[in-house]
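Lecture 7 notes. Example A: sequence first, then its structure tokens.
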Amino acid sequence: MTSARRRPAGNPFRGRPGQSEGASGRRRTLAAVVIALASALVFSACSLPFLPSPTAKPTTNTVDPSVAASAPKGLESFYSQTVEWTSCDNGLQCGTVRVPLDYANPGSGEISLAVNKLPSTGKKLGSILVNPGGPGGSGVDFVRDAGSTHFTAKLRSSYDLVGFDPRGVKRSAPVKCMSDAERDAARAKVFHENTDEGLAAALAFNKSTAEQCAQQTGAVLGHVDTVSAAKDLDILRAITNQSKLNYLGFSYGTFLGSTYASLFPDNVGRVVLDGAVDPSISNAELTAGQARAFEQAIHTYVADCLRQSSCPLSGSVDNGVQEIRDLIQSINQNPQTAKDGRRVTVSDFINGIILPLYDNQSWPALTQALQGALSGDVSQMMRIADLGADRDPNGSYTSNSAFAFQAVNCLDYPMITDTPGMRAEEASLLKDSPTFGEFFAYGGVTCKDWPYKNTRTPAPVNYAGSAPIVVVGTTGDPATPYEWAQSLRKQLGNASLVTWQGEGHTAYGRSNSCVSSAVDNYFIDGTLPQDGVKC
């Protein structure tokens, strides 16, 4: 019997896997917020409205003429715009910023970016723009939900934290493709992509989905690439009245940050890139690197699990991993039903396993979910998958991150889309990761019939700025392998690498005082961490 194969829709960048809504998507990653998977599995997807208080008194932000003067020719009105900030979300301020739809033709139309800020609690040194990852992660949600907890009190005392939804994401000219009911239905689909018939069915489904995305999203779908987002970032720098960009990017946010550094080297201020993506590698190399890293992560998890009395696995580490593989294949052959009546396919099951691997504090939740699944109850695994897919228990999806991820990646990366190439990639991925490899294959299916072709070719970052950049890497990072941080640091040249010897994705906000002090001191005092320091 042939196996049903669908990729986990995680993303190599963001730090937690998500759902591709049946679009045969690749991986999407962490929103840099620590994954709160308590052993009781009490999940709550916070979705507070992005609305000002009815009694709020707006304040306006006028850009300093010297900052506005940094505008590239033809973009002066965007750099000098006045932003109205309105109180919102319990002490935050919210606003919108105009940017060109198409930077090649800035007079052809505009879109609006949603922004918010958490004001500093002490003597303000400036603003730090933050990006949680993705592509597809909402910086507005990140600052709203985790601004006061993920960042140290010391940093918050000195800086306003400014979040933004990049173009195509949630509130900023969002990519739209499906209704919530259609997303549920798409997640329940299974394609046998290792057969000609199954691959044809997957391609047909993705072509239909791409047509829906184009119809529902409009012209912005062709302009959500990372280069355009980096140009938006420079406008955001200006409207926060910063002559230099102060920026903290996680996961995909490091890719956005390094792209910015290439485009605007003279505008780089204090920039920290945590959970680094190597901009020089191809999509195939990126996929293979992540497959190997997740394989290592599942072995590390199993080794830890076997030391716990609650572990449902047995024998050696290899034996325990094989038990998980057997469980995956049983779901692969025969999807199960959760207590809520929904069908749990192997894609959701894989996402349920992968998501807790982004934070070792979430390993007990994975152990509990595996206990249930081995006993025939896949409900808890589905609840974790729902968290990754941003689905509330009531069936509402709180973000468009899966669709934004797909749209951005199809523009940012040339994909292997021919059948022989995808078959060869699958064979290679199976060697890289016997546990997960087959589910990371066939990523090219997503973009083969996408209405817009890629606009970028992977290349090393070209940074010639005078301000040093801090790169942070985690040795046990499954989503952005540590060697990517090492590579990015070398490409940047004028940079310093901080290493956290730990497990999980990204470091700042979830590691130790060594990492937080290195980052905080750089932002606050300008003290560059010693290159190669290990925490």
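Example B, a different protein, same format:
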Amino acid sequence: MQFNSAGDPEKRCYYRLLPDSETGNEETPPTEASPLVPRNEKRRKCGRKARFNKYALAAAILASTNSILLGYDIGVMSGAVLYIRDNLKITSTQVEILVGSLNLCSLVGSLAAGKTSDCIGRRYTVVLAATAFLIGALLMGFAPSFSFLMAGRLVAGIGVGYSLMIAPVYTAEISPSSTRGFLSSLPEVFITIGILLGYISNYALSSLPENINWRLMLGLAALPSIVVALGVMAMPESPPWLIMKGRFGEAKQVLMKTSNSEEEAEFRLSEMMKTVEPASSSKNWQGQEVWKELLLRPSRPLRRILIAAIGVNFFMQASGNDAVVYYSPEVFRDAGINSRKQLVAVTVIMGIAKASFVLVSAFYSDKFGRRPLLLLGSGGMAISSALLGFGTKYLGRSNGTPEWAIALCVVAVCADVSFFSIGLGPITWVYSSEIFPTRFRAQGSSLVISVNRLVSGIVAMTFLSISREITFGGMFFVLSGILVVGTIFFYFFLPETKGKSLEEIQLLFEDNID
């Protein structure tokens, strides 16, 4: 099954059907069930340029700020672990457990987040995620021992799981279709900004005594948690969630604020109401039966959606990007860079490259579409991983440390994380949050992000062990092969969704789509 790209989303606009006296036809005035329809371009020319709704942008930024916490942890842990190993006298195996445990613990948060957000709402789930990470960051910052540090990682991991699920879902539900690609990419943008801040924190604090520097590195993550928990009170609730709770008036008020016109707001409201089953539109609805329908008796379109969403999340983490970021100092040390200050400085350069390209993807996903960026990103990562494998293999067999080979490894790592930031990084969150039907969105996203976290944890906790057996070069060749398979999967199983409403996207997976 191969999907083709859709048309230009920026041509979408809306109009009210006019009475017979004004149009001279037999159409009737708009009804509550269907107040608006897409305007025929032959009758009136549409504006082409999509506008950013400032209220929707502010709400998306507040929700996505939570993602800084995961990014900061990924970035800061890559440097902090160098000092934790010496200060707490832990083994390489304990290092892998420490690094990977946050991802596995986030699996718990991801699984619980869907049901939680259906019960208490998207907004308060964001608060819950920030609170959990705040507690975890404080526990890690004051940890007197390895076991205490692991307890902090467990609590922080649950918060990360909640955040990874709720930020993209909330953003997708609040966003107009014309700018949903950009706004739904913001969680990855903030993850990348967090990674860069983690690298900068490592570099700035590395000269402090090793019994203090890593504690400050980890403990500083509490600051954005407080900002998110306070700022979220200014966020509106998600309109689809309000509709599923039967709160139609509140949903319309939010849509009026997050749409570019009254007509667009009413169109979005009517589309959402069409896709919510009567049983779900009540104050007592809390996501009942959703898991059963997802796992035990999914319809054929829903099964296709699950395959696409699980697939993109699996390949996102099987690409090894998180492990490359976590263990980049180990990779560069193996490549011949031995100074800790130099190791941390190189990771800062890598973080700048990663942050730059995620912005490119965010700004252009609504223009070029999800598929082209995803295919470009995964294909580029496959080539970069192969070059990194070649460079590290050559250095492993060389008697010296030729500068060209070291430079190749540094460039290849920076290219790898940059291509990830163009494709798999942001596009995975966009797809995961927008392709599920309204009633299944929260718990469906919860399921696929749990797969994301599980694979991420497995890769992070086995990366060093496998690399010791087959060398870093061999590991990167394996990752390159996985990415080739992923690129083929994306080509055949992921449709283009740019410019379509959340309700229209469901039609892409119906039986009449080849």
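Note on Example B: The longest helix spans residues 438-493. The first strand starts at residue 14 and ends at 15.
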